[in-house]
Amino acid sequence: MIFTNTEYLLLLLMLLLLIFFILKLKEFKKLKKENHILKQYNEATKDSNIISTADLKGNITYVNDKFCEVSLYTYEEVLGKPHSIVRGEEDDEIFQQLWETIKNKKVWYGVLKNRKKNGEFYWVNINIRPILDEKNEIIEYIAIRHEITDLVLKTEELKRNLRLDSLTNIGNRYKLIEDVSKSVNPCISILDIVSFSDVNDFFGYKTGDNVLKIVARKIEELLIDKENYKVYRDHSDTFCIVAQNEDRDKFIKNIDEISKTIGKVPIVIKSRELYVQLSYIFSFESKENLLETANIIKRYSQANKNIIIYDKALELEKDYEKNIFWTLKIKKALDEDKIVPYFQPIYNLKTNKIEKYEALVRLIDGNNVISPYYFLDISKKSKQYLQLTKTMIQKTFDYFKDKDFEFSINLTFEDIKSEYISSFIIELLKEYKIGHRVVFEIVESEEIDNFRKINEFFVTIREYGCKIAIDDFGSGYSNFEYLAKLNVDYIKIDGSLIKDILINKSSQNIVSMLVNFAKGQKVKTIAEFVSNKDILNKVRELGIDYVQGYYIKEPIASIDGLNDIISLREFS
């Protein structure tokens, strides 16, 4: 068959149309499949997240069912209303920062306390994102929230329990230290039960515990001003009473009356009457030195003298000697290159390998390896801290420059705010070009007082590939803010939770929620203080990514060959 030119062109055109149709059909099927998948993803997101959109003035234009379910408002009740309808108790400064961020076409991350229609509060981890048109102009805002109320409340419950003495149900030493640090012009009295060990020896520890509970209750009942006077159990048979802005003579008189009253009325034990006598001491020093000075005078108390008031002369000379001793030792260590990093491995529970190390400062004194517990605080007083920090960072970078491991360096917010330290870190990142293996671990838990400065530093180090970790996560509400604001890569779960995880159901629940929360944020978790195999198995069961602790390995001076040794041990 012979085709004319016209027929040939017509046939070719039909063939091209057929090919075009087949391609379009395939593309349509692909788009239909992708749309179906996208729809499912959208439904899943809508079900798990609280979503709302707003116009340029912040008025609500859309909320999903989850928003209504959690806030208890109907769609009609919130439509067109400002988002402040669910606002909790945050400061205006937070919302000012929020608006500044999103108006500059950036995403704002944070933790907010919202209010339901019935007045109840709920907490959300939230990111608010501006939606831009093709001209890069903002047309609306979308807020995606993830409710973390259970996590926050459980953490607060744990914090309360950590501050409560389980035997006497009064504040413990941790609570005492916390309250003193927040107090204004405090004074303290430390009371001890005279010859309490005899009670335990003669009647047994169960009876001794009952005596402690009775004495604690009696002290509480005898407090004249229960708003100002607070009682705590320090340890064993030692109680502390703290008051603020109290007249010195009045405070001494009140404590004396409490002691005399308790001593007059016997405690009946197994048909026997036991008279409890209290010895007590006082300190009226500044809150920074209050507990330290109170403990000093305990050491100077005499058997025939039950009342002592702190005098600086008692320990001032020893305090000076101690500071001078460590200041000289630090100076010598810096001069002789004896400030060194030790490294503790961080073990991946998925790959069953060591993949990272944390650098920890040590002072070498002859054959002794000295923990920073003894010298770090004194280094801050003697202005040696910055040099210590710089030395640690330099040596850690130098050690890991040719090693294929991620490594973490501890920093405080004060370090970051120090131009001396922050600029030095940037210089090292430029020089060594190993930023992709560096993790900066934030070790403090106080509020960020200069977020702009901190954020600028993290934006800069991220340009070099560095990662960010938060230490002691779960120990306070502020940590959730850090996680949202700083967009972290790792969280190290508070060691007090891990240590008690086998015996404390509350700790276990908190850790489980923290892990689930972190997974939702695509943040990896690290458990510290893993001291035995049972704890390791429990944190593995809860889905934690990495572990660190003496069960894996104590901090060491050299990591060479360590992976081969660790792999021989049974961790999996």
TrEMBL record:
Pfam families (UniProt xref): EAL, GGDEF, PAS_9
SMART domains given in the database record: EAL (SM00052), GGDEF (SM00267), PAC (SM00086)
Residues of the PAS domain: 55-105
GO function terms (MF aspect): cyclic-guanylate-specific phosphodiesterase activity
PAC domain location: 105-160
Domain GGDEF: 184-312
Alphabetical list of InterPro entries matching this protein: Cyclic-di-GMP_PDE-like (IPR050706), EAL_dom (IPR001633), EAL_sf (IPR035919), GGDEF_dom (IPR000160), Nucleotide_cyclase (IPR029787), PAC (IPR001610), PAS (IPR000014), PAS-assoc_C (IPR000700)
Domain EAL as annotated: residue spans: 323-569
Entry keyword set: Membrane, Transmembrane, Transmembrane helix
Keyword set includes Hydrolase: no
Name of this protein: EAL domain-containing protein
